[in-house]
Amino acid sequence: MNDKTAPPKTVYEGKYLRMIERGAWEYVERTHASGLAAIIIAVTPEDNVLFVEQFRVPLQAATIEMPAGLVGDVHADESIEISAIRELEEETGWTAAHADVLMIGPTSSGMASEKIAFVRATGLKRIGAGGGDGDENITVHEIPRTRAAAWLVQKMTEGYELDAKLWAGLWMIDHHLDGTPRG
């Protein structure tokens, strides 16, 4: 029996994650959501890119990320677009008139079954302060789009962990998936 046909065996199941063994592979999957997360690419009317800063326990470090969240963790039948707008509002205090899924792909295909949807949020309007839900302590950063990459590099030199998906998100602000410029 190979890894493709081996039956999955649950090694551990917690409140949010399950560890699976399938043949020679060990990986994790989510237990309470769809197995899909959304990363939100959002640029304000003032041409500022929205980033969030928060402490991440697995890394024991502060991270810089684009706003993101799980699809289906609040309402099981919630669409990717609605989940993305909800997370954007919760984390940043901005809402969006529109949300468009640009692409979906794995986050770490050798370790987890989770996939992520890159979602472009447009028609942004500030509705609150953001900062996350009750157990989150999120700092919102609004960085001019033309300085965003340099700001991220500066944050790396200051010791922040940067989500690698940031660079893909920045590229998607100005490009269609086929590489042609937006605009």
Automatic annotation (TrEMBL):
Q: Which UniProt keywords apply?
A: Hydrolase
Q: What class of enzyme is it?
A: hydrolase
What CDD domains does the database record attribute to this sequence?
NUDIX_ADPRase_Nudt5_UGPPase_Nudt14 (cd03424)
Q: Which residues, if any, are the signal sequence?
A: none
> Which terms in the Gene Ontology molecular function aspect does this entry carry?
ADP-ribose diphosphatase activity
What Pfam families has UniProt attached to this entry? NUDIX
| Residue runs in coiled coils | none
E.C. code: 3.6.1.13
Residues annotated as domain Nudix hydrolase: 33-166
**Protein name (database record):** ADP-ribose pyrophosphatase
Native source species: Pseudoxanthomonas sacheonensis
Source species taxonomy: Bacteria, Pseudomonadati, Pseudomonadota, Gammaproteobacteria, Lysobacterales
